[in-house]
Design goal:
It is built from six helices and eight strands. With 206 residues, the chain is of the alpha+beta class. The radius of gyration is 17 Å and the shape is globular.
């Protein structure tokens, strides 16, 4: 059963703040993406239609907002409170997409993080925070993450959080100009009765 409106929502853990992506984020988002173009290029979704292209920033936000209004997506930017900035700065993006209600209660999650902040626990914290929200607040049952086998940093994220490896998906998504193989990882709510965030934060201090 689908709940009432599921968006907008803001999630926080320490200095990390996940909030809705906004049109007025364009300048900052574009600057972060520009700095990370080479870092992100091998994992970027592309359009299999040679005559097509990807949406520009406003088109992307419009599409994500429409999906959120239909309760099929949660489009977050990952931001971080830093001493030198008045407001939390954008350090990445995380989108829960393809939310299915009814008898499935499942979704897919994807993310990227600024290379300058990689390895600092931002991605696993954000994934854990959002997965807990989806399981506990929205009542979803399954979360899936699909990762290219060559993407070591993302593989370490699901490994740290205990996502189950469900196997290989040949030519699963069009990435960086070609159909790319992926590995599929998933968790169901029964597998993490204590959630993901609390155990992950405990593991960092043990």
């Amino acid at each position: 059963m689908r709940p009432g409106p599921i968006w907008p929502v803001t999630l926080e853990c320490g200095d990390l703040v996940l909030r809705p992506i906004r049109y007025r984020d364009k300048k900052e988002w574009t600057e972060v993406r520009g700095r990370n173009s080479e870092w992100l290029a091998p994992w970027e979704a592309s359009n299999p239609d040679p005559a097509g292209g990807l949406p520009d920033y406003r088109q992307m936000v419009r599409s994500l907002n429409a999906q959120a209004a239909q309760a099929t997506a949660l489009p977050f930017v990952i931001t971080e409170r830093v001493p030198a900035a008045r407001n939390p700065v954008i350090v990445g993006q995380l989108t829960v997409s393809s939310i299915v209600w009814g008898s499935a209660l499942m979704a897919t999650l994807g993310y990227w993080v600024d290379q300058a902040r990689a390895g600092q626990g931002i991605a696993p914290t954000a994934v854990a925070l959002v997965t807990d929200h989806c399981f506990r607040t929205l009542g979803l049952h399954r979360m899936e993450i699909n990762i290219r086998p060559e993407n070591g940093p993302s593989l370490r994220v699901v490994e740290k959080l205990g996502f189950r490896d469900e196997g290989y998906r040949p030519r699963y998504l069009h990435i960086d100009g070609d159909w790319a193989d992926h590995r599929s990882f998933a968790l169901t709510s029964e597998e993490v009765p204590d959630g993901l965030l609390k155990p992950f934060l405990a593991s960092k201090t043990s």
